[in-house]
From TrEMBL:
<feature type="signal peptide">
    <location>
        <begin position="1"/>
        <end position="19"/>
    </location>
</feature>
<comment type="function">
    <text>May be involved in cell proliferation and cell motility.</text>
</comment>
<protein>
    <recommendedName>
        <fullName>Tetraspanin-7</fullName>
    </recommendedName>
</protein>
<keyword id="KW-0472">Membrane</keyword>
<dbReference type="InterPro" id="IPR008952">
    <property type="entry name" value="Tetraspanin_EC2_sf"/>
</dbReference>
<keyword id="KW-1133">Transmembrane helix</keyword>
<feature type="transmembrane region" description="Helical">
    <location>
        <begin position="126"/>
        <end position="152"/>
    </location>
</feature>
<keyword id="KW-0732">Signal</keyword>
<dbReference type="InterPro" id="IPR018499">
    <property type="entry name" value="Tetraspanin/Peripherin"/>
</dbReference>
<dbReference type="InterPro" id="IPR048232">
    <property type="entry name" value="TSN6/7_LEL"/>
</dbReference>
<keyword id="KW-0325">Glycoprotein</keyword>
<dbReference type="GO" id="GO:0005886">
    <property type="term" value="C:plasma membrane"/>
</dbReference>
<keyword id="KW-0812">Transmembrane</keyword>
<dbReference type="Pfam" id="PF00335">
    <property type="entry name" value="Tetraspanin"/>
</dbReference>
């Protein structure tokens, strides 16, 4: 049991170190994937488009760096900026979303990349604290399992 807990502890420790060391690569990868999702955005029910809509609605943002990122997409030429960027759904018309100067007043202007990364970084201390607490419980479990094993082994030899 102590060996199993030790193995799990090492796996969690390695995952934490790898996540910390490669955090910049994770950010770069996320930004390129978000750009790709914008380029391939459409209104059909594909999960990348739904993810972009969810991020934009939840974080009140639009595009990768800002709302003008949508102007470079094929979707913009057909329908304008997506409705998930609108500050209020009732006030956004399709004509407004096709005109960048009018859309600036009706959509969120901040980009999603900065908001997502800053949200992740602000929550990292909570994640690190929870991980540290779990690691402490695992270490206590490892120590107690070793003590129990030693106690059982010592008592067997005394009985004989």
């Amino acid at each position: 049991y102590a060996m199993l807990l030790s193995l799990i502890f090492l796996i969690v420790l390695v995952a934490a170190v790898v996540g910390f060391v490669f955090r910049h690569e994770i950010k770069t990868n996320f930004e390129s994937n978000l750009n790709l999702a914008l380029r391939n955005y459409n209104v059909t029910a594909d999960r990348h488009s739904e993810a972009v809509d969810t991020i934009q609605r939840t974080l009140h943002c639009c595009g990768v760096q800002n709302y003008s990122d949508w102007e470079k997409t094929e979707y913009f030429t057909q329908r304008g900026i997506p409705r998930s960027c609108c500050k209020t759904q009732d006030d956004c018309s399709e004509e407004d979303l096709k005109d960048p100067s009018k859309a600036k007043l009706k959509v969120f202007v901040d980009g999603c990349f900065f908001l997502v990364t800053s949200t992740m970084e602000s929550k990292m201390s909570v994640v690190a604290g929870i991980s540290f607490g779990i690691a402490c419980f695992q270490l206590v479990g490892i120590i107690l399992a070793c003590c129990l094993s030693r106690y059982i082994t010592n008592n067997q030899y005394e009985m004989v």
